[in-house]
């Protein structure tokens, strides 16, 4: 019996997708420990099963045992001592039995962190941040923790559980692949590219250790390298051309932008930056925003040729194109003579605040997310509010929350306009789970985005017994709405702007 025959038998026992032999998988699983720092020998294959699948595990071990020169390496907390040993130099098959954590386990882990952890690093430079973290005592705490195989790093990835917890599709796995590709230790296989682009860039990876660790940027930098190799996924090949010709990433006709807008406002020091998704898919949001600004007697303008902020270009690794687009966008904003820019879109807000400076570009305006700007209007008495009685919860968008630290403004608004107490999700603010629509995944793998949104509604929202989910992001709103409609979930989903508009104009939710 040769090794190929053994692999075939293992596939029959464990299932084809659970026996991993792709070079990307073998490379990832040859590393262990926090951040995948410890290199071991490369296994022949990995069998990915959970401990509950005892029958398949027993059969697989029995087959492998027929090969006296092949070692079985167990990867699970139950085999902690085995894990801590180096993989021997003889051929080995790694049996990955890591359990995917459920919501209650995540809650316990984060509760523990809140009690003992402080922000370890604050830096504007991800590379310096990573160097610092590796020098910090955190690395020693990780080495001695019960999850010394790096399993927490795997389990806290938004995406990994939807790939059966395979480490190649985890935060840790992507970090290992990114490092390997940049060191020319691994080729850009289809599997590697698939893993790198199946990242929602939610910034939740490693949040269980320390908030503010921007390791997701390593994934985005690796996408840049993939683009430079000419291997960008097909779905993103026309993105830049669409932005140049149509002013949006997906090539929607220019005449359909802001189609519900009857009057183009062109005077005022406040520039209302609508954003592509809101402009094309959510007219109720931009119409609500316009009504609120008028109610508060704010003189504002909307750009006739607004275009796209270009976040999708940066996220997908098209950095040169992203900078060109940013330069054109900056020119438009300068020519508007606006002093304040307000947007409903956290992606646009994040791009203007964090990404443009990476290109050496600074906007000549104060930048606000709509929640910040409208919170100030309410506090200053510019809006007359009628309290709303709705049973609701708030979803923290990743770009607004973890990436930009805006948590208080939307909650302040809801405290002022709700006649009932806002019910928080079990994981919120810096620990809030992603909607699944970010990082370009909504275009690259829409089924995955839908699965992530559906899971969040089922596990985080519906158990709260609320009737309304409020958010401040058009991508989140659309993804949640699609998930609710597809699965028949009885939950209403609104943008915060719509809620404020209802409170100021005494409307009723539909």
Q: Which key phrases capture this entry?
A:
510 residues, alpha/beta, Uridine Diphospho-n-acetylenolpyruvylglucosamine Reductase, domain 2, Rossmann fold, 4 domains, 4-stranded mixed beta sheet, 4-stranded parallel beta sheet, 23 helices, 13 strands, 9% strand
Secondary-structure map:
Elements: H1 3-14, E1 19-20, H2 23-28, E2 31-32, E3 38-39, E4 45-48, H3 54-64, E5 71-75, H4 80-84, E6 92-96, H5 103-116, H6 126-135, H7 138-144, H8 151-155, H9 171-182, H10 190-197, H11 216-228, H12 239-246, E7 270-273, H13 276-281, H14 283-295, E8 300-301, H15 311-315, H16 319-335, E9 340-343, H17 346-355, E10 366-369, H18 370-379, E11 392-395, H19 408-417, H20 441-444, H21 446-461, E12 468-471, H22 474-487, E13 492-495, H23 496-505
Parallel strand pairs: 4-6, 5-6, 7-8, 7-9, 9-10, 11-12, 12-13
Antiparallel strand pairs: 1-4, 2-3
Helix pairs in contact: 1-3, 9-11, 14-23, 18-19, 21-22
């Amino acid at each position: 019996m040769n090794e190929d025959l053994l692999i075939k038998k293992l596939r029959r026992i464990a299932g084809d997708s659970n026996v991993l032999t792709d070079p990307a998988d073998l490379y990832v699983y040859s590393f262990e420990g926090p951040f995948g720092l410890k290199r071991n020998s490369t296994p022949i294959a990995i069998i990915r099963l959970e401990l509950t699948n005892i029958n398949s595990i027993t059969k697989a071990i029995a087959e492998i045992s027929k090969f006296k020169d092949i070692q079985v390496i167990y990867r699970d907390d139950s085999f902690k001592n085995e894990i801590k040993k180096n993989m021997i130099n003889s051929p080995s098959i790694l049996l990955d039995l890591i359990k995917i954590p459920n919501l209650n386990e995540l809650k316990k882990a984060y509760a523990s962190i809140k009690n003992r952890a402080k922000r370890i690093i604050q830096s504007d430079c991800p590379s310096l941040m990573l160097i610092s973290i590796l020098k910090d005592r955190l690395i020693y705490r990780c080495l001695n923790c019960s999850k010394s195989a790096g399993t927490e790093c795997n389990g806290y990835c938004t995406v990994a559980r939807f790939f059966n917890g395979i480490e190649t599709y985890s935060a840790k796995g992507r970090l290992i692949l990114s490092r390997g590709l940049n060191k020319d230790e691994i080729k850009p296989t289809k599997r590697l590219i698939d893993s790198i682009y199946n990242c929602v860039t939610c910034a939740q990876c490693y949040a269980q250790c320390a908030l503010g660790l921007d390791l997701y940027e390593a994934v985005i930098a690796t996408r840049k390298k993939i683009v430079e190799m000419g291997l960008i996924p097909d779905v993103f090949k026309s993105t830049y051309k669409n932005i140049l010709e149509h002013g949006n990433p997906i090539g929607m006709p220019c005449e359909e932008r802001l189609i519900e807008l009857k009057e183009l406002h062109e005077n005022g020091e406040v520039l209302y930056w609508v954003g592509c998704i809101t402009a094309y898919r959510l007219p109720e949001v931009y119409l609500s925003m316009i009504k609120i600004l008028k109610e508060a007697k704010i003189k504002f303008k909307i750009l006739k040729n607004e275009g796209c902020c270009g976040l999708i270009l940066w996220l997908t690794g098209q950095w040169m194109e992203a900078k060109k687009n940013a330069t054109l966008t900056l020119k438009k904003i300068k020519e508007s003579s606006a002093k304040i820019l307000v947007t409903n879109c956290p992606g646009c807000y994040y791009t203007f605040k964090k990404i443009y400076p990476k290109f050496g570009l600074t906007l000549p305006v104060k930048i606000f997310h709509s929640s910040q700007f409208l919170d100030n209007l309410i506090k200053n008495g510019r809006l007359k509010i009628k309290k709303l009685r709705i049973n609701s919860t708030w979803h923290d968008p990743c770009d607004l929350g973890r990436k930009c630290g805006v948590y208080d403004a939307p909650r302040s608004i809801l405290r002022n306009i709700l006649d009932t107490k806002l019910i928080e999700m079990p994981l919120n603010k810096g620990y809030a789970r992603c909607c699944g629509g970010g990082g370009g995944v909504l275009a690259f793998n829409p089924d995955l985005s839908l699965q992530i949104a559906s899971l969040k509604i089922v596990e985080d929202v519906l158990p709260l017994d609320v009737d309304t989910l409020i958010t401040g992001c058009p991508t989140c709103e659309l993804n949640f709405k699609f998930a609710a409609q597809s699965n028949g979930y009885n939950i209403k989903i609104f943008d915060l702007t719509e809620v404020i508009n209802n409170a100021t104009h005494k409307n009723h939710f539909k």
